[in-house]
Amino acid sequence: MKFIHIADVHFDMPFTTLEGRKLSENRRLEQRNAFKKVIEYIKENDIPYLFICGDLYEHEYVKKSTIEYINKLFETIPNTKIYIVPGNHDPYIKNSYYARFNWASNVKIFKEEVEKIENDNICIYGYGFEDFYMKKSEEKQIQIEDKNKINILLTHGTLDGDKSGEILYNPISKSELNKLGVNYIGLGHIHKISYKDEPNQNIVYPGSLISLGFDELGSHRNDLWRNR
User: Helix axis angle, 21-45 relative to 64-75, nearest 10°?
Assistant: First the structure.
């Protein structure tokens, strides 16, 4: 199967470390351009699935016009099924755009309870944040019913967060994930691309589309579309 997996776009991030309003505005424009390239790639290559694993936007700062921009791009790929798991920066809360905006018909937004979606020979399991913190992970609630199908898990969180002490953001156990027998595990939250040095690893952080701070050096997802 073909799919695109992205995370941590952080639309309308304030970029407070940049000096001057103009620099911040330019960086937010680069966010839009990077995201648009992803959508264009999907359209040109007939990609049937787009997985967005959290922190699509900044709940505190995002503008309605930005949400409308995102949704209009979604509408340009009606044959692509779009699955979104909210993260700690864009949780599915009562006043969030996930809850109160009329999203395109090809968009599915997961909540905190694990949900399974079946498409032909594919089963997609997903769960996300319904608050700015999630101290308990839900991977133990997943039961793979048919291992002859392609099984995919989508969530946003910290891999082995219990071991590192980072327990506030969905601390996911790598050993528990490996027990599931899932073919692909799409994550978000860590802005660095995780699979670059581990090509056979099925637990993947795609990294952020663009660098979001001076401490985020190296390749980012936008590099894949930079020269298109």
Answer: 20
Neighbouring-strand partners of residue 57: 11
Number of domains into which the chain is organized? 1
Q: What is the CATH number of the domain that holds 78?
A: 3.60.21.10
Cβ neighbours of 76 (radius 10 Å): 13
Look at residue 182 and give its three-state secondary structure.
coil
Residues 6+ apart with CB under 8 A from 58: 10, 11, 12, 13, 14, 89, 90
Dihedral sign computed on CA atoms, order 80, 85, 88, 92: positive
Dihedral of CA atoms 202, 137, 134, 94 in degrees, nearest 10, equals 90
Domain of 131, in residue numbers:
3-224
Start-to-end CA distance of the chain, whole Å, equals: 23
Of all helices (H) and strands (E), which one includes residue 184?
strand 184-186
pTM, rounded to two decimals:
0.90
Residue found under tokens 């291992």: 147
Percentage of the chain with pLDDT > 70? 86
